[in-house]
Amino acid sequence: MALFPFFAFAVISWLYRDELSARALMIYWGLWLSGLTVIFLAKLHPGFFASFQCVLAIAMLIQLRVNPEVPR
Questions:
Q1: Given pLDDT bands bounded at 50, 70 and 90, which one contains residue 61?
Q2: Comparing C-alpha atoms, which of 41, 19, 22, 18 is closest to residue 30?
């Protein structure tokens, strides 16, 4: 379950690698790695990390100004 946000994060990084700078990708992946480290060291529930991954993916999409059209 905690891998689903990771796949979204990885796909966004791959698809928009030209629009995001290398510095931005390093910062996002550094935040991801530090979040993973904190979860393991603090022995927190994996759901906290899954929500953190979702927040990072949403932050990437906001930075890229991706606005998907949702059908009603």
A1: confident
A2: 22
